């Protein structure tokens, strides 16, 4: 797991661990990430199954409930199958765009 900070955003990049291990590692260190928007990059994986994306559902719901964005980046996920309450985009730039839009929505009270 590679962790980078860019302003008020933390980018966590998948290395070699399984998605379940990555979710566990993020949850274990959650206190250090809870005040930042989170981008989870799964780009290094050959394949990403829907079941693997759903592993992030609880973490995503909790983070978004605290008024912070949670975005998964993977071009290997069928976006039509992703649960509505999750945000998955194919590129890092789109993840930043989503965070910016969600910040504007929060500022406007939506």
Automatic annotation (TrEMBL):
<protein>
    <submittedName>
        <fullName>Uncharacterized protein</fullName>
    </submittedName>
</protein>
């Amino acid at each position: 797991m590679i962790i980078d900070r860019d302003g008020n955003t933390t980018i966590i990049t998948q290395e070699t661990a399984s998605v379940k291990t990555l979710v566990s590692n993020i949850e274990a260190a959650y206190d250090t990430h809870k005040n930042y928007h989170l981008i989870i990059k799964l780009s290094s994986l050959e394949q990403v199954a829907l079941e693997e994306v759903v592993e992030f559902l609880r973490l995503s719901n909790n983070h978004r409930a605290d008024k912070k964005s949670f975005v998964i980046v993977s071009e290997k996920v069928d976006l039509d199958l992703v649960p509505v309450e999750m945000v998955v985009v194919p590129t890092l730039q789109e993840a930043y765009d989503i965070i910016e839009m969600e910040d504007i929505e929060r500022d406007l009270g939506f």
